[in-house]
Amino acid sequence: MTGRDSEVWLRPPLATLLTAILLIACAEVGGASMVRFKLELTRWARSVMLAHPAVHGLVGVRDVDEQAVDEALVKFDAALRLFHLHAEGMGLVIIATTMTAATLAGSDGARRALIALLTVGGAGYPFGYLLWGALIPYVGIQTGKTIAEWLVWIPFGSATIVAAWWLAALVGARLVRRP
User: Fold this and answer.
1) Which of 14, 27, 82, 158 could form a disulfide with 87 if both were Cys (CB 3.0 to 4.6 A apart)?
2) Domain extents for the chain?
3) Distance (Å, whole) CA 13 – CA 43
4) In the predicted model, is pLDDT for residue 151 greater than 70?
5) Average pLDDT over residues 111-136
6) What is d(CA 98, CA 91) in angstroms, rounded to the nearest whole number?
7) Per-residue b/e over 139-169, b at no fewer than 16 CB within 10 Å?
8) How far is CA 61 from CA 54, 67, 141, 171, in A?
């Protein structure tokens, strides 16, 4: 009885596992850095925002400008936190879904495609939050979000979503065919 015919779960390729573990490690470094360098990061973001007043709608009146700067700083902090959370979560998602694909995908081509989509999509997606956070001080909240969406979230997220539905269909088909 081979691994594919038994109840034995197969591991995904080592490169996939390494990618997932490195992603989780990046999440932990990101989380620790947010705590350790919170003041420095906030000062940096504020200084860049003040250097680009038109981007943030700053008018030169402290009482008015502080509200806009504070809102952008909240979004900047949120982007960093979202990177931390998504990188942790997607690392685990990569491990679970690629193990399922390695075990249940019937053909080598389908298995390789699923594992590639899940690995690349899952590993790339969280970095959209870092990109968004880095762009907020320079181009503003919405423009930064739009750039992150088109460069990272849409392509990497789509890869993950397509692969997850494909994998769900494979698992569903297995359930239907089960004796």
Assistant:
1) 27
2) 14-172
3) 42
4) yes
5) 98
6) 11
7) bbbeebbeebeebbbebbbebbeebbebbee
8) 13, 10, 20, 59
- 139 confidence band (pLDDT: 50, 70, 90): very high
Asked if residues 134 and 121 have their Cβ atoms less than 8 Å apart, the reply is no
Distance separating the N- and C-terminal Cα atoms of the chain: 17
pLDDT above 50: residue 146: yes
Report the pLDDT value the prediction gives residue 2, as an integer from 0 to 100: 47
- Per the listing, tokens 């007043």 go with 53
| Per-residue tokens: 149 | 């969406």
Cβ atoms of 24 and 16 within 8 Å: the answer is: no
CA–CA gap between residue 122 and residue 134 (Å, rounded): 20
136 token code pair: 């907020």
- For residues 15-42, give the mean pLDDT: 97
